[in-house]
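Components:
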Amino acid sequence: AQKITQTQPGMFVQEKEAVTLDCTYDTSDPSYGLFWYKQPSSGEMIFLIYQGSYDQQNATEGRYSLNFQKARKSANLVISASQLGDSAMYFCAMREDAGKSTFGDGTTLTVKP
Amino acid sequence: EAQVTQNPRYLITVTGKKLTVTCSQNMNHEYMSWYRQDPGLGLRQIYYSMNVEVTDKGDVPEGYKVSRKEKRNFPLILESPSPNQTSLYFCASSRLAGGAPDTQYFGPGTRLTVL
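Structure:
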C-alpha cells in the first residue's frame, strides 16, 4: 500500500531565506508520480511541482525545487527566497500510474517578516 | 480559461437525502478524481477515473458513487448521506502523459454539512 509521511506538522522560516519541507514515501510500484501542493487559508489546492519516478533530474518550477532521492524514498520540497505569501499548508502526494493517489497530512509553513 | 468547476460550493443537507455534487473540466483531461479533506488531515481519495466509463475505488469509497459518461464530467453521488460524510470535497483532473497522470488541477472545493 502507498504511504506518504510528512514529519513536520509546522515550520517557520524568515522571509527571503530558503526552507525544506520533508516528505518520505512508500510504494511497491516501480512507476509513480510525486507531487507537492499548496493550500492557503482560503482553501484552494494549488499545484506546485511534479516528479516522475523515472525522471533523472530533480524537478524545478521557479522558486520551487524537488529534491528527489529515489533510493531513500524521499521527495523534499525546497522553497528558495521565501515570501510572506508562501505561508500556507503544503501537501506531498504520490500517484501510481494506475491512478490511485495518496496524500500526506501536510506541513504548515509560516514565513516571518 | 482552463479550470475545474464544482457545484454547489456549499451545501447543508439532512441525513438520508440523496445529493449530487457536479464536477466539470474544460481541459480535455482523461483522468479525474474525487477527494475529501477533514480537519487536520490531508486529502483522501474517494474514486477516480482514468477515462470515460472507467472508474475505480480510492481509499474511502464507502457511501459514495460516481459515473463518467462524458469526458468532461465526473459527478459524485451520495445516495444516503450521513453526518460522517460532512467534509470538504475536491474534484481534480489531469492529463495522461505516457499513460500516467501528471499535473493535477483541483476544483475550488465543496463544503458539505450533513445534519
